[in-house]
Amino acid sequence: MRTKRLLPLAALLLCTPALAGTAPAAAQQPSAAPLGAEPRPLRILLTNDDGYSAPGIRAAFRRLTEAGHDVTIVAPLTNQSGTGTKMLSGSTVSVRHPEPKVWAVDGTPGDSVAFGLSEVFEDAAPDLVVSGTNFGPNVASLATHSGTVGGAVAALESGVPAIAVSTGGLAAPDPVTTVNAMGPTVDFLVKLIDRLRSRARSGPLLPGGTGLNVNHPVVGADGTGRAEGSAVTFQDPQSPLVPDFTDSGDGTWKVTVRFGLRTPAKGGDVEAVAAGKVAVSPMSADWNSGPADTARVAALLAGLRP
Known about the structure:
The chain is of the alpha/beta class. Helix content is 29%, strand content 22%. It has one domain: Survival protein SurE-like phosphatase/nucleotidase (Stationary-phase Survival Protein Sure Homolog, Chain: A). The protein contains eight helices and eleven strands.
């Protein structure tokens, strides 16, 4: 993440209460929108890593379509959770077109986005790629290995604005409450996109090369509750998944994984979700550090020669 972009995005996203879900309907029109002009609907490529028929992507498709957007699903044929940014690893790919506005790619989220941009949107790139909503959170290091985030990264690499969206708390996802919480998640997604397009006017939805990783908590006993607000955050630098390997004695090792969160970093995505807020983390498609870290490494390596 490039931290120099954090403050401008915070001002863009959170300078009015509409995104937090606390403003009345009349207050949801940002003051920066031109008088008498409605932001145009967007052409959206919708992908995920849970598969093209998963509850989260179908909820997003319905809600974005109801909001007036032209949405096309181009997503994996099967569950590709945890594939990260993997893409283009084979010389052929199988693609199905099972229904109008839906393409199922037998590959990763990155493969799906690459196919969508190259073939489905061949004539003109989409205005936005949305990846999700995912079943379960993608905070901290989970985001680094997430296929949901990987789909958004593939879009950013091609110069298309992208939002990764996930639904989940800070524990193993419960099937019923997590699916229920996808409703409030996609409602927030529509508000977020409305904010971006109203502020963009005729310009880009987001600063060049910048995407958003959105994590919506599960709120209420049944998951249908609304979040306490939203916060512009950064990716918490901890790894909540702790693996353990047990030697089976035959050359194989049994792998078990437990969820072990440490104290959240202040201002990070874990802290926000733990507080019942939607975490909105700016991200980039590359692995560059910020200028301060680059300067520190340059000082460490000063004078080094091969």
